[in-house]
Design a protein that fits this description.
Elements lengths: L1 H25 L5 H30 L4 H31 L1 H9 L5 H12 L2 H41 L2
């Protein structure tokens, strides 16, 4: 139950952060604020990645700390995801303008990510494409790991309740 509340809180916190980050693009014509926010997001993602590489394998190994490790992994997925999203929005805005950003945001809020992938590939901006790809892989990988843990936990609870009903 605690993890469900934690997951909901993470979602709303990062949604609010995304709205504020989006505001940095449209506040003024000068892009220094959005560049600073994107730079901070990328640096935070790198820090989170390194901390995860060194701490999470040990935490997942010991059963007592697995729940905390899953929460950290889910937090990491949000960090990678919001950085990916903001970079996608920023690249789409810089390359094709605000109309395409609005259109991309109307596509479930994440339409700028595929636009930015296509635009960076089409224009040969390989460094940006590489960063977007790594962030996407990290975000999906963290989500899959946490989802697998929750599915395994639900299966174990279901099996134990069936065993209790059978009187075993």
């Amino acid at each position: 139950m605690r993890s469900e509340k934690f997951r909901r809180s993470l979602f709303w916190l990062f949604l609010l952060m995304g709205i504020m980050m989006l505001g940095t693009i449209f506040i003024s014509d000068e892009q220094w604020l959005s560049e600073t926010v994107l730079s901070a997001g990328l640096k935070t993602s790198i820090l989170v990645l390194w901390l995860s590489i060194f701490s999470l394998p040990f935490m997942f190994y010991y059963p007592g700390s697995r729940e905390l490790a899953v929460c950290i992994t889910e937090f990491d997925s949000y960090v990678f995801g919001i950085t990916l999203w903001f970079m996608g929005v920023k690249l789409t805005y810089a390359i094709v303008g605000p109309v395409m950003v609005v259109f991309g945001l109307l596509v479930f809020g994440i339409g700028c990510i595929p636009f930015s992938f296509f635009l960076t590939w089409f224009l040969g901006r390989w460094t940006d494409l590489e960063i977007l790809s790594v962030l996407l892989v990290l975000c999906v990988l963290c989500r899959v790991i946490s989802h697998l843990h929750y599915m395994n936990k639900a299966r174990q609870e279901r099996e134990s309740s069936l065993m209790d009903k059978d009187g075993l």
